[in-house]
Amino acid sequence: MPVTKANDTDFQQMLANHEKVVVKYYADWCGNCRLFSPKFKRLSESEQYQDVAFLDVNAETSPEARKLASVTTLPFFAVFRNGELVDTVSASKEEAVTSLLNRLN
């Protein structure tokens, strides 16, 4: 499933439309966020996670979405199941995000 950009306007709808969601919170100025983008895209294309919606949310322009996951640092990742927050991690390592994704299964 491709990575979808989301914001405060459509974030709740995205959570409602997908049972499993992983969100990458980023900011335009965040170098580690930019560096992680290709890894996030690769994970989104993995057959293992085909039932997971991958969202990119700009933490600076989407304060409501940011509050739902209590984002503290960037990049920040959160997984949701049935609209409920399951877990979060602040990391730049693919293994940390993979471990987070595996909590959805």
Task: Give your account of this protein's structure.
The protein is an alpha/beta fold and 105 residues long. The chain is built from four helices and five strands. The protein has a five-stranded mixed sheet, sandwiched between helices. The longest helix is centred in the middle third of the chain and has 15 residues, at 31-45. The protein starts with a strand and ends with a helix. The model has no long low-confidence stretch (mean pLDDT 96).
Main sheet: which strands, in order across?
A: 1-3-2-4-5
Shape annotation: globular
Instruction: Tell me the number of strands.
Output: 5
**Helical fraction:** 25-40%
Give the terminus-to-terminus CA distance.
17 Å
The count of helical stretches stands at: 4
Average pLDDT reading: 96
Specify Rg, calculated over alpha carbons.
12 Å
The run of helices and strands is EHEHEHEEH
Instruction: Characterize the biggest β-sheet.
Output: 5 strands, mixed
In short:
The chain contains 4 helices and 5 strands. With 105 residues, it is α/β, with parallel strands linked by helices.
